[in-house]
Amino acid sequence: VSPDRTVTRAPAIDVHTHFVPRGLVERLATGGGDWGMSAELDGSGPSAIILPASSGYLLPGRLAVTPAHHDLAVRRREMALRGVDVQVLSAPTYLYRYDLAPDLAGPYVRAFNDALLDELRRGGSEFWGLALLPLQHPEEAVREVDRLAPFREVLGVAVGTRVGSLDLDHESLRPVWSALERNRMPVLVHPNHTDGIDRMREHLLTHLVGLPGETALAAARLILSGRLDEVTDLRLCLAHAGGSFPLVLGRIEAAFHRMELGADCARSPAEYVDRLLVDSVVHGVPAGRLVLDVLGPERVLLGSDYPARTGLEDPLSALGLLGLDRAAEDAIRGGNALRLQRERLDAIAD
Ligand SMILES: [Zn+2]
To answer: Under the phi-then-psi rule, with left for phi > 0, alpha for psi from -120 to 50, and beta for the rest, what region is 170?
Structure first.
């Protein structure tokens, strides 16, 4: 046995992938739910979800649902090809539906989460899930956190950066953060909106320039408002390596010391990096190194954004290009995600 083969590597855990549960699409396609959306099935399963412009989604209309979005067997083949051991499944942002009236939001989110749970149970240990929450109805969101808390298949939740007209630091969401913290459910903070859409209609600029700024805005608001001081054990993971956040954090920090920002945080902004995680969905070695320099390898989780074409086709190869030592690479590969899962399972056992 060569020395290399005696070293066990952390499993590769991809925390940022998008998934459309078949059960939800079937329900929509047969006219179920009164949620202002419909769906299409073809011979092989779900083929599209149709969302009206009134849903507030960036790119409304007919959204193609491919086998990669809904078929665990297809995903398993992709995982084998890329060396990924576990995929963490969460909804595409067009399914967040923070536009629904509060009385519709609870039933909708439960339908999504139950359909996701069905798939996770079918999928076994290779798939973990991030549930949806009806954040426009915070009391209902807390009830949903408590309902899902006992399920080991559910690692945590995915949330958008904007809930209708509310930002994530809004007063009304405080009980939701506390409930997630209490249950040690990590939160993937995924941009679901950007302002200035009229200036970004061409060239997919909404996604290329708007969404990374949106993520930085959400993180800055959570820090400067003092929200993160209230939930010190909440695990927040910013999608797309934090978007623009790793780059603008130094700017925020400098301004904090020189100017009156009206900030309510207990510490200086840069110190909050120890409270945040990011995924590894960043393109190119220079940007990857910046993220690692700002956050440190213990705060980065492997991600791909699969099957989005803006994501990383081969997340482990992209990680390998950063030239990290074995311990740092292993932490990002899966060690950090395993720690989150362990905390979560301990909370279930308590
Ligand atoms: Zn994504």
So the answer is: beta
pLDDT tens digits for range 168-181: 999 999 999 999 99
Instruction: Find the 16 Cα to ligand 1 centroid distance in Å.
Output: 6
The Cα-based distances of 5 to 1, 8, 270, 329 in angstroms read: 6, 7, 40, 17
* Alpha helix stretches (DSSP H) within the chain: 3-6, 22-29, 67-70, 72-82, 102-123, 138-148, 174-182, 205, 211-224, 227-230, 245-258, 285-295, 315-320, 326-330, 336-349
Expressed in angstroms and rounded, the spacing between residue 137 Cα and the centre of ligand 1 is 23
**Ligand 1 midpoint to CA 239 (Å):** 7
Whole-angstrom Cα Rg for the chain? 19
Two structure tokens written together for 246? 């790793």
> 87: CA distance to ligand 1 center in Å?
13
Question: pLDDT tens digit string along 33-74?
Answer: 889 999 999 988 899 999 988 888 888 899 999 999 999 999
Distance between CA 99 and CA 169 in Å, rounded?
18
Rounded-to-integer distance, Cα 238 and Cα 52, Å: 28
Place of tokens 């909804």: 91
Q: How far is the CA of 15 from the centre of ligand 1 (A)?
A: 10
Bridge partners (DSSP) of residue 276 are 236
Task: Give the model's pLDDT for residue 5.
Answer: 54
Structural contact between residues 145 and 176, judged by C-beta atoms closer than 8 angstroms: yes
pLDDT tens for each residue of 201-260: 999 999 999 999 999 999 999 999 999 999 999 999 999 999 999 999 999 999 999 999
Rounded CA-CA distance 13/102 in Å is 34
Between the CA of 232 and the centroid of ligand 1 the distance, in Å, is: 25
Tell me the pLDDT band of 1, cut-offs 50, 70 and 90.
very low
How many whole angstroms from 131 Cα to the centroid of ligand 1?
14
CA 146 to centroid of ligand 1, rounded, Å: 25
The rounded mean pLDDT for the chain is 96
Q: Is the pTM of this model over 0.90?
A: yes
